[in-house]
Write a structure and sequence with these properties.
The chain has five helices and five strands, in the order αααββαββαβ. It is elongated, with a radius of gyration of 28 Å. The protein is an alpha+beta fold and 180 residues long. The protein has helices spanning 3-24, 26-37, 45-69, 91-103, 132-154; strands spanning 76-82, 85-90, 108-116, 121-129, 162-170. The strands form two sheets. The protein has a three-stranded mixed sheet, with helices on one face.
Length: 180
């Protein structure tokens, strides 16, 4: 989990804890109000409790909507499903299919990131090539062949669109010397 995510979740947890404290022990706000009045600070506990509850309700609804809308990455593509079980094509198998297709094109160090959602299949592919200029000239053909092969592989399964993003990096032939 990222640090920013942890920070946001911690902040929201503290906010909800304060809201629960004010709901369970309303005299807590009255004590805070009396304490602040000794320093000539005005604090309306009932008004604070009302607006704090409304803001927590709004925040809860917002989080609920985000959870509903967030796309779910599926672990596989179901080929057949019956009462005996299900047959599925896993994401790792599709990644290996892409690696096998691109290995004959003069590419090496092929890294594939595959996002399988309900609406589309996204492929983000990074590969290295010794001859970057000639490979870049062939890149549209390689990408089109890969899209065609993926469409053939997944045509009988579903009609979701496939989005392929292929990037080529030049492989470094420079060897670093080690000084002892």
């Amino acid at each position: 989990m990222h640090k920013t995510t942890k920070f946001i979740l911690g902040f929201l947890s503290l906010g909800y804890a304060l809201g629960l404290i004010t709901l369970i022990w309303p005299e807590f706000l009255i004590r805070v109000s009396k304490f602040l009045s000794t320093y000539n600070m005005r604090f309306n506990a009932i008004l604070f409790s009302y607006y704090y509850g409304v803001s927590l309700l709004f925040l809860t609804l917002l989080i609920f909507l985000i959870v509903l809308i967030w796309p779910v990455i599926q672990p596989d593509i179901v080929l057949t499903k019956s009462k005996n079980g299900r047959l599925a094509l896993t994401n790792e198998a599709i990644v290996q299919f892409i690696n096998r297709n691109l290995s004959g094109e003069g590419l090496s160090d092929i890294k594939v990131k595959f996002k399988n959602t309900k609406r589309q299949h996204k492929f983000h592919i990074i590969a290295a090539s010794n001859y970057k200029q000639s490979t870049l000239a062939e890149l549209p053909r390689i990408e089109q062949d890969l899209e065609h092969n993926l469409d053939e592989l997944l045509a009988k399964v579903d009609s979701l669109p496939n989005k392929v993003n292929l990037k080529i990096n030049q492989k470094s032939n420079h060897k670093f010397t080690r000084i002892v």
